[in-house]
Design goal:
- The structure is a single chain.
- The chain has about 160 residues and is an alpha/beta fold.
- The chain folds into 2 domains: about 35 residues, no CATH class; about 100 residues, Ribonuclease Inhibitor (Leucine-rich repeat, LRR (right-handed beta-alpha superhelix), Alpha-Beta Horseshoe).
- Helices cover about 30% and strands about 15% of the residues.
- The longest helix has 15 residues.
- The termini are far apart.
Length: about 160
C-alpha cells in the first residue's frame, strides 16, 4: 500500500476548509490594521501607485496613468512598457522620468519631436510608425542608438 500525505491531509472537509481559509487570509491581508482589544498591534503597508509626475500632453498623461495602474508601478523606474498607439499624443515632455521603459508603442500619434525618449537608456523596442510629421533626424538618431529595433514612419525610411 502506498502512503499519500496529500490524501491524508485533505481527507476531511474540515481540513480542506481550514486550508482554503488559511490561504485566503494570507493572500488578502494588504492594507489592514490588526488590533487586540481595539488597540492597533500591526499594520500592513498599503501599496501606493506612483503619481509624482506631470506630462505636458494630456493624452500621454492618461495613457501613462493606465499603464501605471496595469503594471502596479510604485516608482518611476518600474514602468517598463507603454502602449499609447493612436492616442492623439503630440508631445513627450516629461516621459524621461520613466527610466525603466524598455518597450514603447507610439504608433499613429501626432508626434514631431521625440527628444525625451532619446535619454531612456533601457529602451529596446520603439514603434513610431504612422506619425506623419515626425522629425526624421531624431527618429534616425534613436534607430542608430537601438540598433534596428525602432519602427519609423514611412517618410523616414
Amino acid at each position: 500500500m502506498v502512503y499519500s500525505p496529500m490524501k491524508f491531509i485533505f481527507s476531511s472537509p474540515i481540513s480542506i476548509l481550514l486550508a482554503v481559509s488559511t490561504i485566503a487570509c494570507l493572500t488578502g491581508c494588504e492594507g489592514y490594521t490588526y488590533t487586540l482589544n481595539e488597540q492597533p498591534i500591526f499594520s500592513t503597508p498599503e501599496t501606493t501607485l506612483f503619481s509624482d509626475y506631470s506630462l505636458s500632453d494630456s493624452s500621454l498623461q492618461s495613457c501613462t496613468e493606465q499603464a501605471i495602474l496595469d503594471q502596479s508601478v510604485t516608482q518611476p523606474s518600474q514602468l517598463t512598457q507603454l502602449n499609447c498607439s493612436n492616442a492623439g499624443i503630440s508631445n513627450l515632455n516629461g516621459l524621461e522620468i520613466f527610466s525603466g521603459l524598455t518597450h514603447i508603442n507610439l504608433n499613429g500619434n501626432k508626434l514631431i519631436k521625440i527628444k525625451p525618449i532619446l535619454y531612456l537608456s533601457k529602451l529596446q523596442v520603439v514603434t513610431l510608425e504612422a506619425n506623419k510629421h515626425l522629425d526624421c533626424s531624431q527618429g534616425t538618431q534613436l534607430a542608430n542608438k537601438l540598433k534596428g529595433s525602432v519602427k519609423l514612419p514611412s517618410h523616414c525610411l
